[in-house]
Q: What sequence folds into this?
């Protein structure tokens, strides 16, 4: 079996494809990424991971009860470079509170925001344990209208780490409808998708308590799988089975 680990940060599409072609099998983030690689000319067998697993020492069965359907958490690297949309988002909110967790924001930058609160950095297990909010927001880029810019466009093909992070904390997610993970979220009933953040509050208001409780039950099932490494182990089984089949002499 051949493994290729690349530390290079800037590779052309052809260079990336050629390196991946040296492997026997490629586990990709999702179907969108697999299609992207196939279109670039990669012939190596592939399968989809679907979502990144997330291990934590916090008990899986802990499931927080929300105080309000309008409390939203956003965790990760913060700042204009990746989250320029913050600066237009506050004025769109009336019922929602957006709670930010992470490094990168200067408190002086957010003076005058009325519906966005910055709580600074907290440890990941502390976040999982306290699970602040009712939803976890997965959104990057320059605009509230769609996930634009380099960071936003990346959501079209990747599996964001924060999606797994929110789910492991027991939070249903809110995701851009064009994100590669949107089908996974819909199929597993673990959140809602929106075309634009302008429609966020209306989308939340349409979620009944019964529907939200159904999502919470689905999140509990998925986060148990995340903690067990289910998705990686399943993908590895597919990879090893394929390689084993390829290496065995085929009967004529």
A:
């Amino acid at each position: 079996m051949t493994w290729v680990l690349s530390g290079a940060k800037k590779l052309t599409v052809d260079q990336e494809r050629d390196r991946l072609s040296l492997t026997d099998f490629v586990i990709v983030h999702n179907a969108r990424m697999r299609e992207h690689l196939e279109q670039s000319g990669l012939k190596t067998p592939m399968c989809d991971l679907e979502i990144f697993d997330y291990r934590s020492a916090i008990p899986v069965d802990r499931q927080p009860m929300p105080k309000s359907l309008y409390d939203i958490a956003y965790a990760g690297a913060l700042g204009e470079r990746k989250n320029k949309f913050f600066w237009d988002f506050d004025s769109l909110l009336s019922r929602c509170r957006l709670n930010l967790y992470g490094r990168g924001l200067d408190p002086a930058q957010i003076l005058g925001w009325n519906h966005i609160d910055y709580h600074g950095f907290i440890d990941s297990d502390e976040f999982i344990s306290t699970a602040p909010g009712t939803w976890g927001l997965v959104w990057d880029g320059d605009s509230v209208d769609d996930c634009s810019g380099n960071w936003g466009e990346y959501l079209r093909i990747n599996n964001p780490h924060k999606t797994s992070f929110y789910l492991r904390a027991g939070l249903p997610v809110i995701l851009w409808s064009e994100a590669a993970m949107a089908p996974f979220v819909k199929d597993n009933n673990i959140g809602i998708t929106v075309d634009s953040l302008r429609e966020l509050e209306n989308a939340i208001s349409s979620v009944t308590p019964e529907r939200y409780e159904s999502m919470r039950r689905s999140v509990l099932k998925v986060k148990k799988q995340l903690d067990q490494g289910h998705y990686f182990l399943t993908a590895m089984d597919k990879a090893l089975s394929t390689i084993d089949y390829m290496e065995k002499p085929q009967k004529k």
About this structure: The longest strand covers residues 71-75.
